[in-house]
Structures are given as structure tokens and as C-alpha cells.
Amino acid sequence: MKVLVTYFSQSGNTRKVAEAIFQEIQASKEIRELAQVDSLDGYNLTFLGFPIQAFGPAQQAAAFMEKHAAGKNLALFITHAAPEDSTDLQQWLANCRALAAGANLVGMFDCQGELSEQVADLMSKSGDERLAAWAKDRPSTLGQPDDTSLQRARAWARELLQKHVP
């Protein structure tokens, strides 16, 4: 049994979650940035992580799933700056789930990540009132993902591994 943890991370949020998940894997395992992965062949299970960008999966992750995920056992882990009880978040996660439709999606995890100052600045200058409002909420995202979120990611990974890795 071979497990891959791969991720796209711009600000380090998704990388933190990837590392937490990787620590839980007791089988043969690899962790690699998404740009370093050419194929999912040879892996029995892949954990794929990325941030929400523009109300859906980061473009790099979307392109990767479209090209490589069909027929593969896939677990998605997603970071976002939205509060976890946000009504908008459910649609964004549905957009991510839809892109993984060709895969055998065995699980999905999400948690809040810290909104970078640079992204918040772009959002506030975008001319979009919703984006500007979210940018103002940046202080509430500071320190995310926190230890509690990373513990939840580890627990989620353990549960999936018990079900899908002999």
C-alpha cells in the first residue's frame, strides 16, 4: 500500500495541513508539492490539498484533478479564509467536490486558513463589495489553521486510513 500526500499552497496554510496528515500515515508514503507530481499511478490513496481561490479550487488543483484523478482513490483537504460556518463555503466545497467527480472520492476535509495580507489587499481593492468585506475580516483568520484544526485533520486522516489502507 502506497499513499501520497500532495498539495498546492501559496501562503503555507495548506502545507501545514498536509504535514499533519502525512504524520498520521503508517503505510509507505510520500509528501510532495503538487507541481512535483506527474501522475497518481502507483498510489493506492492520494490526499490532495489546495486552497479555495475565486470561489472554487485553486486553478492548479483543478487542472491536476481534471488530468489525473479519474478512477483514483482521492481524499481532498481544503483550506479557505472563510469562517467554517459560512453559507458561501458550502457552495465552494461543492465546486471542489464536482471537480473530483471522476475519482473515487473517499473523503473531504476543510478548515480555515489565515488570509494573507497580500490577498486581503487585493480583495479590498477589487471593487467587489463581498470581497472587500471578507478582506476586512482578515484579523479573525490570523493564526489559522490552529492546533485544533490540525488535530481535526489528523483525526480525519486516521479515520480514512483505517477504512482504506490495510
**What coarse outline follows from CA principal-axis ratios?**
globular
CATH topology description? Rossmann fold
Taken as a percent bin, the fraction of beta residues is 15-25%
Largest sheet: 6 strands, mixed
In the CATH hierarchy, what is the superfamily? Flavodoxin domain
| Tally of separate domains | 1
Output mean pLDDT.
Answer: 95
Summarize the structure.
This protein is 42% helix and 24% strand. The protein has 166 residues and is an alpha/beta fold. Strands 1, 2, 3, 4, 5 and 6 form a six-stranded mixed sheet that branches.
Architecture blueprint of SSEs:
Elements (H helix, E strand, L loop, with lengths): L1 E6 L5 H12 L3 E6 L11 E9 L2 E2 L1 H10 L4 E8 L6 H13 L4 E9 L4 H8 L4 H8 L10 H18 L2
Parallel strand pairs: 1-2, 1-3, 3-5, 5-6
Antiparallel strand pairs: 3-4
Can you give a write-up of this model?
- The structure is a single chain.
- With 166 residues, the protein is of the alpha/beta class.
- It has one domain: 3-Layer(aba) Sandwich (Rossmann fold), CATH 3.40.50.360.
- 42% of the residues lie in helices and 24% in strands.
- The protein is built from 6 helices and 6 strands, in the order E-H-E-E-E-H-E-H-E-H-H-H.
- It has helices at residues 13-24, 59-68, 87-99, 117-124, 129-136, 147-164; strands at 2-7, 28-33, 45-53, 56-57, 73-80, 104-112.
- Strands 1, 2, 3, 4, 5 and 6 form a 6-stranded mixed sheet that branches.
- Helix 1 (13-24) packs across helix 6.
- It starts with a strand and ends with a helix.
- The mean pLDDT is 95.
